[in-house]
From TrEMBL:
Name of this protein: Zinc protease
Keyword Hydrolase applies: yes
Gene3D superfamilies reported for this sequence: Metalloenzyme, LuxS/M16 peptidase-like (3.30.830.10)
Origin superkingdom: Bacteria
Annotated ranges, domain Peptidase M16 N-terminal: 53-172
BP GO annotations: proteolysis
UniProt xrefs under Pfam families: Peptidase_M16, Peptidase_M16_C
Organism: Flavobacterium granuli
Length: 941
């Protein structure tokens, strides 16, 4: 069997890849080859199609239509219509009138917004129907029909257009805020007053509210046409059959006569630098940036691919230097970065950014620019480059091992990039061979030279974004240029790479424990090992995801064991402990010593428990277990680093601008906390309560006793390899034999039906409504599953009545939840944003549905929800993570997820009556926290 497999790969390589032998990439003027497993064709009418068979996930397929059309093609009178049109594709087509398109999809378990979606940008409009069951040929035909209708047969009914104006106005409202205002003011200089400055996709609300339907139909006719369209079908399908169907269905789409030219939107060059100063009451920090535009040539040669790797390496190396500076603490900037990447279609940008508190921006910008000059003057070091190359090659190799498991959605996304930018898609074989051969040839000089190559004197635009404050004098263009001139003249020392040489991860070799008991769990195909220190390890082999191993260790207790006064210190452990490093290494040294290793670990202290999780490749399993061991036996706490963090926290607290989001968050927290002494607000009192020694004590108490933990290991690793490593690194952790439980501190959620109306100062006219509904329940699997269904059914109701019928909001979010510890609690969070004038009315509709659902759940709604839940669970078991969850659940909750009674039986027998009853039972006992946030100015008028 083994030999056969090898032979097959060997033939595959010779047969399909001309680049398989070493030293094949000497002629870099060659074109990047196109993945031959993708069937590509162009119909006589100009429409391009791509079809590919792929089995990750099995028995599903995804369908895309890509239009090389976006907001830059709009006239002023159409500003916003590219995006408006995208919405209309879901509101009636020739084959699927009205809302029947979504109905058809939802009747096959495809969820709108999650599986079926669309987006519009400045240069493209893309629709997808993803993860559709592919076993039913009729459904494949229906999905192709949807693509066909989207290409050419939208109804664009006047009534539906008018109904959608409200939804889009609300989508626009949802985007409002300081960031939206900043971006609007930055656009003109960022894009040198080109068409990009005027097309933000969401468009002008004046246009959206008042355009005549014929304008939209014109845009549709002008731009949705076969020569600008591609369709993509990837999945567990028969490529030949689908291709025949595509040819049959799409060839008859007529070519548009005298088509308008699909022009490339250019950005004019500028010799003189551009400068924008943008202030807003809600901005907190000063954010400076220098952006230098350049043309992206979309060259398809191997030389360009090599160039791509060089710029990727440049970005990673300079990022590493900034991380090191931030890691040391007390950097003269809050954030600093330098990077090279895409700007818009056809353009790249070199970006130099610095964020600081107001008044310190010149110092911050100087520090960032100094790092660029350090590279220009002295280059990167060989050791920095070597480490990174090792990391990239290891990542390429890991990706190559998993090449048969590339997700269908990832293929769709590469094909999309290929169609829009005409960049070739090489297959995994080529990509790996190329990387393996080319990366070692990249020199430190080449990478360092990028810095000055990107730094051209043309096409510069400077921007300063800051708070609007009396007396605040922001840095000018002249001053920014002076900083640059000063740095270019000053002495800059070369970077010193102080890597510890030949250091071992562990400071000493642990004394192994032994496995004293072994128990089989045949149902799970797992083994439980009890170690001599009392720790339990549950192991299951799984290679649904190749080349990966995961570990999780869990224990009860968490923050609940501690008094209220310790809670800020526990929060600080979670937030800062990782920046202290581990073992003998600070964060920066740790990163260096881990280069070329694919292993990581993290810890978490939760309200009622604590855990450690880790992942690795099979090759690095020992490193992963060493890291887990170190989490227990060699944590690192760094007083100096801690002081730096706290210094910054106090400073931040002082300069804190209270923007609407933070006021809203605090308000909601304090209403919900309802006097709970364990609920803290972020303020001086909180910072004062953080204690460095206490942090260490608590961490050590949580992670010192292996016998209180169960370790779960699931992955692509055999028992014989794992066993001795488990004995060595888990068996050697201290164990006291004591086990803990959580402490119940009671429920402070406000009782009864509470209504709050809070006026918050904000610039935009936006109201937010939030309903938090909570009730204690008796735990059963049925209760939990029915509650989840209830949430999804409500979502469908709100989508129909509040979004589509009323055009009142962009969307009502419904989040059902269930917590089991310390007591079983069900919850339902319902939120939406809208026009302040409408919030009270829409709120009554929310309550109305809560009322209705107790009396009447529609069978059609239930069917849609059940189908979607079934579809999501179908491929579930063929996942490593499913088995991790199943084992964890079995040990911690004493329930077996594999049994049909856990999910399948409930979902197969659920009736509308069940959901009505579940709703009535939940709402009868529930406490309701009902909050409306309105703008302050609005309330006064
Ligand atoms: Zn939209």
């Amino acid at each position: 069997m083994h030999r056969f497999k090898l032979l097959f790969i060997f033939i595959g390589v010779i047969g399909f890849s001309p680049f398989a032998n070493a030293q094949q990439f000497t002629d870099l003027s060659q074109q990047i080859p196109f993945d031959s497993s993708i069937r590509k064709g162009v119909l006589p009418n100009g429409l391009t199609y791509y079809i590919k068979h792929n089995e990750t996930p099995k028995q599903q397929a995804s369908y895309y239509i890509i239009h090389n059309v976006g907001a830059v093609l709009e006239t002023d009178a159409q500003n916003g219509l590219a995006h408006f049109l995208e919405h209309m594709a879901f509101n009636g087509t020739k084959t699927f009138p009205g809302k029947s398109l979504l109905n058809m999809l939802e009747n096959h378990g495809v969820k709108f917004g999650k599986d079926a979606n669309a987006y519009t940008s400045q240069n493209e409009t893309v629709y997808n129907i993803s993860r559709v069951p592919s076993t039913n040929p009729k459904l494949i035909d229906s999905c192709l029909m949807v693509l066909r209708d989207w290409s050419n047969s939208l109804t664009l009914d006047t009534k539906e257009i008018d109904a959608e104006r409200g939804v889009i106005t609300e989508e626009w409202r949802g985007k409002q805020g300081a960031n939206f205002r900043n971006q609007a003011k930055l656009r003109p200089t960022m894009y040198n007053y080109s068409i990009y400055s005027e097309r933000d996709v969401i468009g002008s609300m004046d246009v959206v509210k008042n355009f005549s339907p014929s304008e939209l139909r014109t845009f549709y006719h002008d731009w949705y046409r076969t020569d600008l369209q591609a369709i993509v079908i990837v999945g567990d399908i028969d490529v030949d059959a689908v291709e025949q169907q595509v040819i049959k269905l799409f060839s008859s789409i007529p070519v548009v006569d005298n088509p308008k030219k699909r022009f490339f939107a250019t950005i004019p060059d500028n010799k003189e630098p551009l400068y924008a100063l943008v202030t807003d009451k809600e901005n907190k920090n000063m954010e400076l940036s220098l952006l230098i535009r350049s043309l992206n040539k979309y060259d398809n040669t191997l030389a360009n691919l090599r160039e791509f790797y060089i710029s990727k390496i440049f970005n990673a190396l300079i990022k590493g230097r900034f991380q090191e500076i931030t890691q040391k603490g007390r950097a003269p900037f809050i954030n600093g970065s330098i990077s090279y990447g895409a700007l818009v279609r056809g353009y790249n940008a070199f970006r130099i950014t610095a964020a600081s508190s107001p008044g310190n921006e010149a110092r911050a910008f100087e520090a960032v620019y100094t790092e660029l000059q350090r590279v220009i003057k002295h280059g990167f070091t060989q050791t920095e480059l070597d480490r990174l190359k090792t990391n990239i090659l290891v990542a390429e190799e890991n990706g190559y091992i998993k090449r048969d498991q590339i997700n269908t959605e990832d293929y769709c996304s590469s094909i999309k990039k290929h169609f829009l930018n005409q960049i070739s898609i090489p297959d995994a074989e080529f990509s790996y061979q190329f990387a393996k051969e080319i990366i070692p040839t990249i020199t430190v000089e080449e990478v360092s030279a990028m810095a000055s190559q990107f730094l051209t004197s043309n096409n510069r635009s400077y921007s300063v974004v800051g708070p609007e404050k009396a007396g605040l004098k922001a840095i000018t263009l002249k001053e920014m240029e002076d900083v640059i001139a000063k740095v270019e003249k000053k002495e800059i020392a070369p970077y010193v790479d102080n890597t510890p040489i030949d250091a071992q991860l562990l400071s000493s070799t642990p004394t192994p424990g032994t496995i004293i008991k072994e128990k089989q769990l045949p149902e799970f195909k797992a083994i439980e090992w009890t170690l001599s220190n009392g720790a339990k390890v549950v192991y299951r082999f799984a290679d649904y995801q190749k080349n990966s191993v995961a570990l999780k260790a869990t224990s009860y207790g968490g923050a609940s064991i501690y008094e209220s006064k310790d809670i800020p210190s526990i929060g600080a452990i979670s937030n800062y402990a990782d920046s202290f490093g581990i073992g003998q290494f600070n964060g920066d040294q740790y990163k260096k010593i881990m280069s070329g290793k694919s292993a990581n670990s993290k810890f978490s202290i939760d309200p009622n428990g604590e855990s450690i999780s880790a992942t690795s490749t099979p090759a690095d399993i020992e490193t992963m277990l060493q890291l887990v061991y170190m989490r227990f036996e060699e944590p690192r706490f760094d007083k100096e680093k801690f002081n730096n963090i706290m210094f910054r926290n106090y400073k931040e607290l002082k300069s804190q601008v209270r923007n609407p989001q933070s006021i809203i968050k605090d308000t909601l927290r304090s209403i919900e906390a309802n006097g709970n002494p364990r609920s803290w607000m972020f303020n001086k009192k909180y910072l004062d309560a953080i204690n460095f020694n206490r942090m260490q004590e608590i961490y050590k108490e949580r992670f010192s006793n292996a016998s209180d933990f169960t370790f779960f290991i699931v992955g692509d690793i055999d028992a014989a390899t794992l066993k001795p490593l488990v004995e060595k690194y888990i068996g050697s952790i201290k164990g006291t034999g004591v086990t803990e439980k959580w402490v119940d501190h009671g429920n402070y959620f406000p009782k009864g039906h509470n209504q709050h109306r809070v006026a918050v100062p904000m610039t935009e006219q936006k109201a937010t409504a939030l309903l938090k509904i909570k009730a204690e329940a008796k735990y059963s699997r049925e209760t939990v599953v029915h509650h989840t269904i209830l949430g999804s059914v409500l979502n469908l109701r709100y989508n129909e009545n509040i979004r589509e019928k009323e055009g009142g909001t962009y969307g009502v979010r419904v989040m059902p939840g269930a917590t089991l510890i310390p007591k079983t609690n069900l919850s339902l969070d319902i939120t939406f944003d809208c026009d302040p004038q409408k919030v009270d009315y829409l709120k009554t509709l929310v309550y109305q549905e809560l009322d209705n659902i107790q009396k009447k759940v529609l069978q059609s709604d239930l069917d849609k929800v059940v189908l979607n839940m079934k579809k999501n669970s179908e491929n579930g078991r063929e996942n490593n993570s499913y088995w991790m969850t199943a084992l964890e659940w079995y040990y911690n909750s004493n329930e077996n997820m594999l049994k049909p009674s856990f999910f399948d039986e409930i979902i197969n027998t659920v009736t509308t009556k069940d959901i009505e009853k579940a709703a009535a039972k939940f709402l009868k006992k529930a406490d309701i926290m009902d909050v409306i946030i309105v703008p302050k100015n609005n309330e006064q008028s």
